[in-house]
Structures are given as structure tokens and as C-alpha cells.
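Reopening this one. Same input as before:
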Amino acid sequence: MKILFLSPGWPKGRLWGELGFKFPTLSLAALAAVTPPEWAVAFHDDAIRPTRFDTDADVIALTAMTAQANRAYELADAFRQAGKTVVMGGFHASNLPDEALGHVDSVVVGEGELVWPRLLADLRAGRLQRTYRADGLIDTTLIPPARREIFKGSGHLFTNTIQTTRGCPFDCEFCSVTAFYGRKYRKRPVEQVLAELQQLRRVNSFVFFVDDNIVADRRYSLELFEGMKGMGVKWLSHAPIDFAEDRELLALAGASGCIGMFVGFESLNQDSLAAMGKVTNRAASYREYAQLFRDHGIGILGSFVMGCDNDTPAVFEQTLRFCEDARLEAAIFPILTPYPGTAVRRRLEAEGRILNNNWQDYDMEHVTFQPKGMTVRELQEGYDRICASFYSLGSMYRRIVKLHRSVQVFGPMNLGFRSAIRRTRREA
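Same output, byte for byte:
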């Protein structure tokens, strides 16, 4: 029997769908790694190439984020009509399994590795259950290397993604990571990670760690970064802005090949940071911290949430000026999005402020709730304006013209965001 691991595309004309540089879905390669050997496997990314429904696969395995849910359901409905068995997991289906079951035969809630072999055994025995839930969290020492060979021929230019930790010890109101994993922070053995990196190095010297916070456990990070020194890897990941306070660890990250970090600044307003639970961020130190990252050869892709309750229309110009003055190499400005399962959604639902549940608008580019300090139109237009301004040629020149080792990544990244933003405007 055969499984097609399927990643749904993004809605037409949306930023994340228009970006030309896409990563394949690592979670599907992780499931492929625990698939029993008697099953043949294949992979398809609907965001790269149109999906055909005449596949010889017996089972279609889907995962989707919330903004991809509508497309995932379209694909699931079409494959079921073609007589295929369809199963689905991921953040959205885990939070809304009953909704997903209107389109698929079975839903996996939570981490899939523990229950996936059992689901396949039940399917072969003709007793497939509607819902599968793991009895806890997987022991990270048992996670095998992702089966990346399924990405061969998929059309992706870059497949060197890896996960070393799961979860985050913090509990930000808007974050779906804690809603999915809980606040437990789990780590794979460093020696296993280093062995996997050696394999990835043979494919490409660039590696992206998909960890939500790669430096949450200092002792672990020190051992990992020390082991990576001399490996010749150029890598990027996610870290909090206060990572800059640990000069030893920051220096070791740079020495191990780190050239960029995704950093959640979230807001320049300390009251907003407190309200969202971003307890480690001190806005007054942002500029100093950003310079410390740069001093160690690490560029920043900053993230600033637009539409917090303390935000007024002035937030867009204030944030843009900061990003340019601090010379952030890149940034995104997601509109606050009340994803299913998050604390912010529960709060906004209780306050009667959710405006729609059209999942394709839950892409961080569209307003789906009633803001407090501005109108819906002001939030939407402010978001559109700051994105266009930050990725204007003048802003790009001011921020990244000075030569820095991270420009090899952030130069193309800026051009990619600029092109994608312009395409979304043409599609609007």
C-alpha cells in the first residue's frame, strides 16, 4: 500500500503563497520516518505544483495551518470522492477535530509520531478510528531523522530544515505553539542532532532550525553550538531578543555559523508586551540588543504584531522608524490573529470581538477581529502601508547596504518579500 504525504497550498494572492522561496513541511518527513517499511511513500506540495487526483496512493495524509485549512478541505473532499482514504493532522485539525472530520476519514490530534504506526495498522485491518490521540508526548530520544528523501523531485530549492527541540517555556497569548505542545520544552540528544547535521551538510551548507526557541535551555545550546563549530554550516533559527544578554552564548552561536535569527520583538509598547505575556522583552533595550546580534555576525528577521489593544494608528510609523533606525535586516508585521486554541482567541471570543471564521483570512495579513485603538480599516491599511514601506528600495538600501556576512541571506530575503508584496497587490 502507498501513502501520499500532502501539503496544501496557500490562498491565491496571499503573501505566504506568493513568496518564491518555500520550505517543505518537515512534519510530514517526520511522519514518513516512523512509517512501517511495508508502506510505499510519496510527497507532494500543492503550493509548488497543482495537485492531481489520479494518484496510485491508497492513503492521503494531510497537515495544515489554519490559513491552509480551506484548501486542505478542498483537497480532502476531492480525494475522498476519488475513493481515497484521507487522514489529517497538524495545528488546525488538532484544535478543531470535529470540523476536520467533516472532510476526512480520520484525524490525528497532537504529535503524530506515537500514533501514526497504530493508525496505519488499524487501516490495514479495516478498523480505522475517527480520532487518534497520543497518550502524552513523544520521548525525543526516540525521534528518528526526518525522511527527507521524500522531498526529492518536489520542486523545492531548499530542504535542509531540522528540529532539535519542541515547545517553548513561555506562554504568549497569541502563540499557537504553546497551545499545541504545552509549555514543556523537550530536546533531542545533541549527538543525534550533530550526526543529522553532518548528513545535511553534504547536501547544502545552509541549514534552518525550525525550533521555536533554540536557546531556551542554555546548557543544551552551549553543547550544541560547541559541537557545530568547524562543521562549516551556515544556519538560521528562532530566538528571543533577550538572547543578546548572554554574551557567551551569543558569541558561540556566531562562531558556530549562525547568520540569522527570527526574533519576536512583538511591540515597542511595554504595556502591550505585558498584556500578551511576552515577559522577557524590554522594549527600551531593543536597539542595543539588535546591535549585539549584528556585532556577532547574526542578522535579524524581526516580527512585530500589529493590532494589540494598546495600538493606535501611530503604531505603524513608530514601528517603521524603529526598524529602519535599528537597521533590522528584515521584518514582518503580522496582524494579530486569533488562531483556534490560543488564549487570545478565547479572550476575543468572550469579548464578542471575533469578526469572521473564514480560515483563509487567518494568514496574519487580514483583520479578523475588532481592534480597540483603531478601526478595522485603519489596521488593514496600516499593515499594507508598513509592509510596502519597509520593503521599498530606499528602506532596503538604508538597512542592508553595509556589508555584513548575513547579507548573503537577507539580501535575497528582502528582494523576495518585496516581489511577493507587489504580487499580492496585483492580485487584490
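So the earlier flakiness isn't reproducible anymore. For the record, The chain has two domains: 2-133, 160-427.
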